[in-house]
């Protein structure tokens, strides 16, 4: 895929965002070019070009993993350039730490790809059935579509700029290293040509795969975060509609409470609430392990960032590049958790409004029952107290069940992601960094 295919500023219709996200997901995450219609109709075809593309990507991945393992376990291997030679070309401390971090992340990406590839092949993913509908223009008003499209364009432009900067830096850095290797060979510092050839071939595959991984991080993860934001936005829409309805009821001074209108609105609200709940549950069922692995990678990135910074005797352009890349990965995962942590707060607001509305409604009916014209008023307006008991119980039972609904996402099977958990994780990361730096870096024993 062309490096400059990430051009969100050329999107004019909001519905095109879905095809844009699907394009990058099939290339970077699934490594299988297919349409969602083929998946839903069970007409997936794995062509020869898909097989070649998958094999090339796997070859790049396992060549990178093999190179890192060799550099970690056999740093003086005679078949490739040693760590000392690389350190002369690129003066940087903490190579072992970066090798370990890259190895863990590459293995995690390969495991994620394998599980999603098998899920696509077996058609066990539940979320694709509604994801396309989530990007439907008819679900949002014109102002909301403009706002969402503007958010996607700005966020995509920023994410794409980071991706391109990393890719261009990797290409320039590889070219610089190649010229340095040739210069050392000509000066006699490197005597064996086959070590250069092996290192250039495997190193080239590794650089290309790292650019591919950067595309996965800064395009697919951005599209994933935007999809999560759409689910949050849709739930927020439901909350705002309820807020308007309750405000209109509280502002009204009349007793024109029509049973059919209340029952119709509540049934419509229950239908929308259940639809959003099912969509989020399906999405969470497919990606809850992803949320767990994302949090673990975020913690690992934090540790590596602190340790790498502590090992630098002096900061160079290479040090700043590594720190910037690690910080971008940490911030990206933090933004994803921040986007999906609003469900619990919105759900609690909905419960409070529904409870307040129900209490005020019955209060008005009780006041009306004290008047002398209650029978005439009932015949004319069919008050709420004439609603069948079963329907009334259904409404109250639904209202009471709202706070117990875990609408949102879970970090694997460990915990439910809400605002409090997000704040705890963020504060834990900050305190963990400070404690880790104090104990490990400064060699100060913890206070008992």
TrEMBL record:
Name of the protein in its database record: Gustatory receptor
Residues that span the membrane, as ranges: 51-74, 98-118, 152-179, 199-232, 289-309, 315-338, 425-445
Keywords: Membrane, Transmembrane, Transmembrane helix
Species annotation: Sarcoptes scabiei
Lineage of the organism: Eukaryota, Metazoa, Ecdysozoa, Arthropoda, Chelicerata
């Amino acid at each position: 895929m062309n490096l400059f295919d990430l051009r969100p500023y050329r999107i004019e219709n909001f519905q095109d965002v879905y095809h844009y996200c699907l394009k990058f997901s099939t290339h970077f995450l699934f490594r299988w070019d297919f349409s969602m219609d083929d998946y839903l109709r069970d007409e997936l075809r794995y062509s020869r070009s898909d097989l070649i593309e998958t094999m090339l990507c796997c070859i790049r991945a396992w060549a990178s993993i093999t190179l890192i393992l060799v550099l970690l376990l056999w740093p003086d291997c005679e078949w490739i350039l040693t760590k000392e030679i690389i350190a002369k070309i690129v003066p940087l401390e903490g190579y072992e730490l970066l090798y370990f971090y890259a190895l863990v992340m590459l293995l995690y990406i390969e495991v994620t790809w394998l599980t999603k590839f098998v899920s696509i092949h077996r058609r066990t993913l539940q979320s694709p059935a509604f994801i396309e509908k989530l990007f439907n223009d008819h679900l949002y008003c014109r102002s909301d579509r403009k706002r969402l499209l503007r958010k996607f364009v700005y966020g995509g432009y920023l994410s794409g700029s980071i991706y391109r900067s990393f890719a261009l830096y990797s290409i320039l850095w590889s070219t610089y290293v190649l010229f340095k290797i040739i210069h050392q060979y000509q000066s006699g510092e490197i005597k064996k040509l086959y070590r250069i050839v092996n290192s250039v071939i495997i190193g080239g595959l590794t650089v290309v795969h790292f650019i591919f991984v950067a595309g996965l991080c800064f395009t697919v993860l951005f599209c994933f975060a935007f999809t999560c934001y759409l689910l949050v936005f849709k739930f927020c829409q439901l909350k705002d509609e309820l807020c308007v309805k309750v405000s209109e009821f509280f502002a009204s001074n009349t007793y024109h409470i029509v049973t059919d209108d209340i029952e119709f609105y509540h049934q419509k609200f229950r239908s929308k609430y259940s639809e959003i709940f099912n969509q989020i549950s399906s999405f969470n069922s497919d990606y809850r392990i992803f949320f767990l692995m994302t949090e673990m990678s975020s913690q690992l990135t934090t540790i590596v960032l602190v340790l790498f910074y502590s090992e630098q005797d002096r900061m160079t352009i290479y040090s700043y590049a590594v720190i910037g890349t690690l910080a971008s990965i940490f911030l990206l995962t933090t933004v994803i958790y921040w986007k999906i942590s609003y469900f619990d707060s919105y759900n609690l607001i909905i419960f409070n409004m529904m409870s307040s509305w129900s209490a005020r409604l019955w209060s008005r009916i009780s006041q009306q029952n004290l008047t002398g014209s209650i029978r005439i008023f009932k015949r004319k307006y069919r008050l709420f107290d004439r609603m069948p008991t079963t329907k009334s119980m259904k409404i109250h039972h639904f209202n009471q069940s709202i706070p117990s609904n875990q609408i949102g996402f879970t970090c694997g099977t460990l915990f439910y992601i809400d605002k409090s958990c997000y704040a705890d994780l963020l504060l834990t990361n900050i305190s963990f960094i400070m404690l880790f730096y104090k104990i490990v870096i400064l060699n100060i024993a913890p206070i008992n």
